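User: Now give one protein:

AI:
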Amino acid sequence: MTRPVAAPRPRIPLLRWAGTILSVALLVYLLYRQGWDEIGAAFKEISGWRLLLAFGLLVVSRLAVSGRWHVLLRSAGIGISPWQSLRITFAGLFANNILPTTIGGDVVRLGGTLRLGFDQAVCLASLVADRLVGMTGMAMALPFGLPVFLKSGTGLGFSAGLAASGVIMPGGGLLRRLREKGAAAVRRVLQALSLWISRPKSLLLALGFTWIHMICLFSVFWLLLDDMDQTVPILLVGGLESISYFITLLPVSINGLGVQELSIAVLFSAYGGASQESGLTLAILYRTLMLFASLP
């Protein structure tokens, strides 16, 4: 009897650890090169009331994310209460900060619905639809940032910086996996959306919650930058943050750790007109506020 050949161990977790380490190392290097005194001075420019307002806006954005998923669940016939949706959503958001991938938060959300006795297939489809609606909303803001990002080919320099941080791996292995994942994602999306195609009002309402989330998010960036005397138009803020959002979705680090901070710092300093120390301060403040705003 022929013994089955064991499947090769996946290398993606190792690549994510490597990407995280490289990204964080580069972030620390940028902080060191910029000078801790200048970074500290930028932090001191942030007033307490703006930090509280930014935190409040992030909490509202988290509530909007919960509302988006709740609408999708209810429209698919899942009898979940708003309070249950809220509790499970915040548990998933917090899990994103400690699990090796943002998908980990979805696993927590799925587990929460299953413990309540809801249909597994429908709940899983709702998570796929929830991500798709969120990505659709963010894609709507891309036109406000892409022209600046791509102007005169300057985006190539940014890509080179990401390559140094481990976002772009040599050998094309990551790109191949991304293509494979993309094809599988398209199939899952089409299957998931079949539950909501006949319910366009629910999709539009879910998209409306996404816009609330985005407005809060962009306002946080604008508030913090303005308090550091960095004038960046709100529409450009939205466009650059949407680019950072899609970059962070690349599965190369733990919950985008390091990659998110690098993309925010580079995008807003190189393409938004903010100083480098302000971009770095913004990235660190945003990560910290998001962590506290996602506490269950």
The chain has one domain: 15-293.
